[in-house]
Amino acid sequence: MKTTRLMTxxxxxxANIVKGRLENEGIPCFVTNENFSNLMPxxxxxxxxxxxxxxxQTDYQKAVEILELNKEKELLCPNCNSKNVGIxxxxxxxxxxxxxFVSLLSVIPFNNISGNxxxxxxKSEFKNK
Length: 129
Ligand SMILES: [Zn+2]
Hints:
Blueprint: E1 3-9, H1 12-24, E2 29-32, H2 34-39, E3 51-56, H3 60-67, E4 85-88, H4 93-106, E5 116-119, E6 125-126
Bound molecules: zinc ion.
């Protein structure tokens, strides 16, 4: 029996809610990496770490349907509603690169840097949410 990672969560609470939902549907699953994420929460989302929900490979498709994972929220430009959107580092990209560089030197994670989105049609920048 092969297992596969279904989703990665930032908090064990979230992971266990989804776990409960899948178990209600008869899909066996388990949560892994919970302790590491509790001990070092600032490493979450870096290098793909975080609380991981594991399921059997054979259940993957069913789980995706139950959780409606395929229905991704479409990213639209708030200015012109264009779908032609890319990622931009923002106007102060140099500052962010310095922050990344300093955090690499000091071994402090830099998860507080959020990228902006850039509309390729009207050239306006916006943040997601
Ligand atoms: Zn736009």
